[in-house]
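Re: nickel (II) ion structure - here you go.
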Amino acid sequence: MAILKIARMGHPVLLQRAAEVPDPAAPEIRRLVADMIETMEDAPGVGLAAPQVHVPLRIFVFRVPGHRGTGDADDAPAGTQVAINPVVELLGDDLRLRWEGCLSIPGLRAAVPRHWRIRYSAVDTEGRTFGREATGFHAGVVQHEFDHLDGILYPMRMTDFSLFGYNEEIERAMIAQQQAAQAAQEKA
Ligand code: NI
């Protein structure tokens, strides 16, 4: 196992379409996936796509931490999942702005429009195909990671660039906003 170097925005590997994995059960793919999981956990992050570690293949790993889920039945907390050669279908036209970051764009976050509900399928490292519907955070992280396989980074999906900034500044602004709302409530 090894912690891999993460490519940052500006590196051409992040802008190309990644190739299908011919044999998802191959030992070298299993090794790559194990290293990707270790790299994601070390960062720490909630998702990582193979092009982010300079491997232009259609693979990503992700997890749904308990505190990030929306409470929806199709957005339950989930441990680390592996998706090889994934297919994503966007369901309905319910798009919502969701805050997200990216290990290839360190220190920043933005509100990005994502479909609330999706259906996706993929292959795991045993070569088994699985599929499910997902909503909320789960749907958002899958859309973000799937975009990496097509050379798309989240700023390319943004519609409101005023909702883009450094983590510390946005956290500070959010806390100030919450405090102002609380003070207004106490007065009422
Ligand atoms: Ni990313």
